[in-house]
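protien #1 (seq + structre)
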Amino acid sequence: MVPSELVLGVHGRALRAAPVRERLVELALLACAGVSVVTTVGIVLVLAGESVAFFREVGLRAFLFDTQWTPLFSSPRYGIWPLIAGTALTSGIAMLVAVPLGLLAAVFLAELAPDGARRVLKPLLEVLAGVPTLVYGAFALLVVTPALQRVVPGLAGFNALSPGLVMGVMILPLVASLSDDALRAVPMPQREGAWALGAGRVPTILRVVLPAARSGIVAAGTLALGRAVGETMIVAIAAGQEPRLTLDPRVPIETMTAFIVQVSLGDVAAGTLASRTIFVVGAALFVLTLVLNLLARRAVKTAPGGGS
């Protein structure tokens, strides 16, 4: 038998070594978290520095109140609103497609579909999220636009409608999957309580399950909106490169991300005012997504079950 003193000695050394290992794990996790913080701070500093240099030459008034964006023309104009309008137009169309269809798909998968159908349908739905955006953009330009031109009068070859619809299909799995998880997280006793009071299946879904899952559904919509706002290739291929202040989805427009792609192709010399437009548009996009996230967090907190 092993002497008790030896057992106690080994056990004591293990106890002393445990805090050291735990400390190393804590430091490793802290370093991982610090990478994201440092990266974010670096991005903000670069955007802020280049934006300050841009506004020294252009001025904030021209940026916010001019209605034309032509920084690469011989007579440049620097009003950001045409790019914001194009981004809002395509993202709005995408959300009109993705949110209703995604939420209905989530309700069916979580509340109505048999287990066998759910096991087949959910992976098939999520396959859409794995399609490259380049393929989506080509599909919007070569298939969706010609089809829409047969039914939508005045639809240009490059337009906001086609990429908006295709973008909605692209983000639909995100809405459906996250909303499905939120609906399935609602405790079963809430459903059973509604059934005990005589409510049918559909009234229970509408009046009990959906309100209880509201915070998760809002989070799903927010992530989908952020994905739509930041989408690049679909709008760069199918929406055109004509910044204009319009809400007409039939005409060519340009989004903020598509403009960044246009200038980043290498035709503009680094360090010039035209090249700094990349950073100022990126900063505007950063602020826009930050505002959307803050509004969504507020909506989640005020939702039932979303916290105080």
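ok now protien #2
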Amino acid sequence: MSTGKRSKTVAVWLSFALGSLGVHRFYLHGLRDPWAWLHLPPTLLGLYGVQRMDVLGQDDRLAWVLIPLLGLMLTQSMLAGIVHALTPDERWRDRHNPGQPVRKTGWGPVLGAIACLMVGGGCLMATIAFSAQRYFESQVEAAREISQ
């Protein structure tokens, strides 16, 4: 558990901006949080997939597998931002600022939740569309190989 004062607004916006790297969890729980460190491998693998597709083109099958990892990590970080934003102020205080008075958070988390919902929804739809397109393209290619 963190000992310093943690702002809900900062946590929401960190989740929005750098959540796929686990920065919001490092902010809330410190550098020893194992869940935060688990954000890094799939995000970096997804970025590697994007780089591979940029260099090798759309026919690179490894990139097809790696890029959805990035989309899923972006989506989960947006979901975490929404959850942080919707956490009641009293519960936030009990979890992250015990023994301190309740701080009313205002519009910062609300605007962050709206941004997370818009970006997260887009990331999830794009990830599903990309994965489905690549799957069906591979099925068509396999059917062509069988018929030849």
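Residues 108-147 form the longest helix (40 residues).
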